[in-house]
Amino acid sequence: MRVSVCVGNYTTTPYYIAGLEVPVCSMEELCFCLRENAFLLDVSLMRDELVEWIDRECGLRELAEELHRLIHRQGSLSAFVTMILEYVGFYDMLEIREVEQILRQGAGLSSIERRKGQIDYLVRSKKYMAAIRGYDGLLAKWSELEQSGGEVPAAKVWGAILHNKAVALTGMMLYGEGAECFKKAFDTDQNPEHYSAYLAAKRMELDESAYISFAAEQTIGYEYTLALEKKMERCAEDWKLQPEFQQLLEVRERRSSGDRHRYLEGVEEIIRNMKNQYRSSAGE
Question: Do both 212 and 121 map to the same domain?
Fold first, then answer.
């Protein structure tokens, strides 16, 4: 059994890691976040604000001074993170070397690709509105670089940004906007995944008769429409096994039985859960 002794103070003033927007209140939490999100980190982590937090809030002046010197010597991100992990000792050296390798490999990525990875994390966390704002900013930055003659990644990265923005839009049930975004992604690099997602978004946006008319007008991808219908059937069957579906059935039975009080209680609980999910997706 491994026992870890906490290093530094546990603070009630959290530090929000740049790009991840994850609050940490101790050095152990900081180390955990750095290791689990190593592939998302960039040099924006190396801020005087973090060093000051380590000094003032965690009471680790010695470490803070070393990190401060490293920042102002323009040291590498991998050296900065490794210094923190080794000082705290929350992970063994094998794990620390793995993090160091990930950071060194990521050093070759463009700033756009790094930022995309950070925003993708927001989508996986269902922070959809924050992700949409992030992708819009990233696309604007891309356009600025092109206009100024700057270097930009391959076109498939542009398509991937549009695709993931569309995922966030459909997560907000904005299926029409999501479909348009998936279509732009497909027009960019002709990736079949973009087209399949485009059809799925249109399937959710339109009623059945309108979708049938839409699908009949498609000059490509007939096999994709067939595959989508099979997938929709599987999703419908899977939905029946979910706790949320069972909850809806129970509420419906209360209404049918005339139990108005318990019916309203069930409806209020469902609405409350939906509001909480919306607040989470909006980043509130």
Answer: yes
CA-CA distance, 68 to 46, in Å (whole number)?
9
Residues 6+ positions from 200 with CB-CB distance below 8 Å: 228, 231
- What is the rounded CA–CA span in Å between residue 155 and residue 248? 44
Residues in the chain: 284
At residue 220, φ and ψ (nearest 5 deg) are -130, 160
Asked if residue 36 and residue 76 are part of one domain, the reply reads yes
Q: Is 122 contained in some domain?
A: yes
Q: Enter the tokens of residue 188.
A: 């960019």
Q: What is the domain extent for residue 186? A: 111-231
For residue 15, the surrounding DSSP H or E stretch is strand 15-17
Q: What is the pLDDT of residues 230-284, one digit of tens each?
A: 888 888 888 788 888 888 888 888 888 887 888 888 778 888 887 777 776 655 4
- In this structure, what DSSP letter does residue 23 have? E
Quick check: is 280 in a domain? no
